[in-house]
Amino acid sequence: MDGFLVQIINGLQYGLLLFLISSGLTLIFGVMGVINLAHGSLFMIGAYLAYVVAGITGDFWLAPPAAIVGGLGFGAVLERVLFQRFRNREHLDQVLLTFALILLFEEARASLVGNEFHAVAVPALLDFSVPVVGGFAYSAYRIAVLGICLLVAAGMVLFLGRTRVGASIRAAAENPEMVDLLGIDARLIHTLVFAAGTALAMLAGALAAPLQSVYPGMGDSILIASFIVVVIGGLGSVGGAFWAALLVGLIDTLGQVYFPQIAGIAVCGLMALVLSWRPTGLFSRA
Fold first, then answer.
1. Helices (H), the chain
2. Domain that holds residue 79
């Protein structure tokens, strides 16, 4: 039972990292209608940024702010230069664009930092374990990541629910045509949403860097999991992404430990059940 409770915490922590990625992904699709296959590569860029920043400065805690600021700027440039031109194009064109970005990001990564696996040390301040239950202890850094993700989630809820800009974003996700009719600058909303989604993905990568190796293509598996979260939660629903990410994180983590043969099938099976019962997702409008 003690080990089971520890795995529950692992699942929640993984689910919250999934939320950081999938919340940006669902907003980008809900507001802009863009299928961004390169979203997983942004997670990888955030992890490599943490590796570089921690290696140069010796201070890992400079990496998360750098990921946020860099993500906002990088996302705004990508949206203005590329994605704005594909707003009204077919989804196949968008898929080809984002697939090309994956190849470009991988080539840039190989040229700048090589193809080796890299490790990012856990910050010395949190390099210890906290007794949880029985004889089990839990990494203090993992607890910190869990807390940071919860703070970001709470901040997103407050921003989207209590500010005029957040209301415009929610309106754009639910009814983009009405936003245009109300005179709201849709181009600015699109830039803001894409920049925020990029920053969230890169922040997730920076936070995940000390938890796993930093390596080429590390965003591929997280992209698939994020799309599953978006499908289950509902396109454009941040709240749906939150609960779906926790659900997927728990099922995947517990499955990998107790039922490794069917862990992947269980997550995909859940998505199939949701699609057959409620194709628009659990938390979106029918």
1. 2-32, 39-57, 63-81, 91-113, 140-162, 164-174, 176-181, 186-208, 219-233, 238-258, 263-277
2. 2-277
Residue 24: predicted pLDDT: 85
Contact 49, 220 (CB under 8 A): no
Q: Is residue 272 part of a domain?
A: yes
DSSP bridge pairs for 168: none
On whether residue 84 sits in a domain, the answer given is yes
Task: Give every residue of the chain whose pLDDT is below 50, as ranges.
Answer: none
pLDDT of residue 132: 75
Q: What is d(CA 50, CA 94) in angstroms, rounded to the nearest whole number?
A: 29
Count of domains forming the chain:
1
What is the model's pLDDT at position 77?
A: 93
Is 53 part of a structural domain of the chain?
yes
Type and span of the H or E element at 120: none
Beta bridge partners of 244: none
